[in-house]
Design brief:
Elements: E1 5-10, H1 29-43, E2 48-53, E3 93-97, H2 119-126, E4 130-136, H3 138-151, E5 155-164, H4 172-183, E6 186-188
Parallel strand pairs: 1-2, 1-4, 2-3, 4-5, 5-6
Bound molecules: pyrazine-2-carboxylic acid and zinc ion.
Pyrazine-2-carboxylic acid (VGL) binds next to α3.
Length: 196
């Protein structure tokens, strides 16, 4: 028997895409790749979760308050909206993270749905044993989400055609990929490699 799968889309928001305040090169490209996964998961009636970075205006995550990042993904701002190319469909559950004023919260597993239920619990309630993860950014939120997923006992498959990195230092994304694979994440390069 195949493990029951869920799709986890990480932070495909305007501020992480070209034109945004923390733009990842080709960040908008992941939306197009992810749309194909959304279609396949929705057709198979498998659960879909979309995380979003959801910061208060004042947080130690931002450079101006002691962190390392430009202001981005402030709650209810245009920059925090999902990129318009991403077609989430009605079934996707939105999971918000980064709302605390004093922690970075890179992992999607720090996120909660509209009722305050955390991602791990949502996944377990959906019956998911295996998560397919894509989005932004490879070297921060995707990496932390993948590593936490493995730690929590989920099988994790990285969507290599649907991730892009910040690369604050050159090679960060490549190193992140290596660490995720070494820790136990699998990977596929496109929807054609989905096992169903
Ligand atoms: C992220 C930097 C700062 C991410 C979030 O979603 O990868 N990166 N905040
Ligand atoms: Zn952030």
């Amino acid at each position: 028997m195949e493990k029951k799968a869920a799709l986890v889309i990480v932070d495909v928001q305007n501020d992480f895409c070209p034109g945004g305040s923390l733009a990842v090169a080709e960040g908008d490209q992941v939306a197009l790749a992810l749309n194909r996964y959304v279609e396949r998961f929705a057709a198979a009636r498998l659960p879909i979760f979309a995380t979003r970075d959801w910061h208060p205006a004042k947080t130690s995550h931002f450079k101006i308050y002691g962190g390392i990042w430009p202001v981005h993904c402030v709650q209810n701002s245009h920059g925090a909206e999902f990129h318009p190319s991403l077609r989430l469909g009605s079934a996707a559950v939105v999971v918000s993270k980064g709302a605390a004023p004093d922690v970075d919260s890179y992992s999607g597993f720090d996120g909660v749905d509209a009722s305050g239920v955390g991602l791990a619990e949502l996944l377990r309630a959906s019956g998911a044993e295996q998560i397919f993860v894509g989005g932004l950014a490879t070297d921060y939120c995707v990496k932390q989400t993948v590593l936490d997923g493995l730690k929590l006992g989920f099988a994790v498959v990285l969507l290599q055609d649907a991730i892009r990195g910040v690369d604050l230092a050159p090679g960060d994304s490549a190193r992140a990929l290596e660490e995720m694979r070494r820790t136990g994440a699998g990977a596929i390069g496109g929807v054609d490699e989905l096992p169903w």
